[in-house]
């Protein structure tokens, strides 16, 4: 779609909405309680989606997410926003069934044709994984946002929680990190169109196939890496018996993000994430500040972080790489609990 406006500039001028940091969110939720035996997964464990049991072999998987524009093309923005929300169901091992749009749009400043393209992009991603768009809600808003509320299904026996990793498992990441830095650079007109297209393709790629393929292997936990960054989401996966050891040199990232990070091209969320994890992570002295920051970078539509039996990892990675996830890598392993929950070397 040809246009003479820039969605990201419009959002930047309006004051881009920032995701709450992990510490703030935990504090906000700490007094909320519920008692329902049918709630198999709630908000108490920071999992990616809620799960509600309907019968012995059927449960609902539910989530909602929305984002402000990260690229200027409205169709691609719609794709990325939908992929970002759908990923929460895939991270639980669920199958997407239905979705509802949630939209904030300023028709006084942005052509209505852009809204058509945003919704078309989202719908195409929902259909790609077999889901059906069945409605939604749109408001006039001075700040643009788009996302979806998603309902999926799963057998309760097949739920992939974020905190079930076993000692001896290895950690696989399916997409590169650095997207928060890249999207900040897009807003500042600091990168060329080829890099924008490359990163947009990664962000708009569904985690549907890795989620589907991992069911064939011995996977003990899964989460998706989004706003809290790789280290923040890794912390959510830790239980009292384990630590994650992450080999920084094996973590895939967009190489251009490194130089941008050195020049302080960073979203606010990345800086908050780095502050939150600083006393919870043991960094090897050779890990410089730039790399430490990238490991905390706030992602949009990031990859799955999967704890998998080490004997299955090579075949799993080969299978998803053949499906287009060329960055997929083993980035670490699960250890017995050490002094810190996360070790980066």
Automatic annotation (TrEMBL):
GO BP term (any one): selenocysteine biosynthetic process
Site feature Important for catalytic activity, where: 19
Requisite cofactors: Mg(2+)
Domain (PurM-like C-terminal): residue spans on this chain: 166-340
The reaction(s) this protein catalyses: hydrogenselenide + ATP + H2O = selenophosphate + AMP + phosphate + 2 H(+)
EC number(s) stated in the UniProt entry for this protein: 2.7.9.3
GO molecular function: ATP binding; magnesium ion binding; selenide, water dikinase activity
InterPro entries from the UniProt entry: PurM-like_C_dom (IPR010918), PurM-like_C_sf (IPR036676), PurM-like_N (IPR016188), PurM-like_N_sf (IPR036921), SelD_I (IPR023061), SPS/SelD (IPR004536)
GO cellular component, one term: cytoplasm
Binding site for Mg(2+): 48, 88, 224
Class of enzymatic activity (EC top level): transferase
Domain of life assignment: Bacteria
The PurM-like N-terminal domain, residue ranges: 47-154
Active-site residues from the entry: 16
Residues binding ATP, per UniProt: 19, 45-47, 65, 88, 136-138
Annotated cofactor note: Binds 1 Mg(2+) ion per monomer.
Entry keywords, A to Z: ATP-binding, Kinase, Magnesium, Metal-binding, Nucleotide-binding, Selenium, Transferase
SUPFAM superfamilies noted in UniProt: PurM C-terminal domain-like, PurM N-terminal domain-like
Primary role: Synthesizes selenophosphate from selenide and ATP.
HAMAP family for this protein: SelD
Known partners and oligomeric status: Homodimer.
Family (UniProt): Belongs to the selenophosphate synthase 1 family. Class I subfamily.
Cross-referenced PANTHER family: INACTIVE SELENIDE, WATER DIKINASE-LIKE PROTEIN-RELATED, SELENIDE, WATER DIKINASE
Name this polypeptide is given: Selenide, water dikinase
Species of provenance: Aliarcobacter cryaerophilus
Classification of source organism: Bacteria, Pseudomonadati, Campylobacterota, Epsilonproteobacteria, Campylobacterales
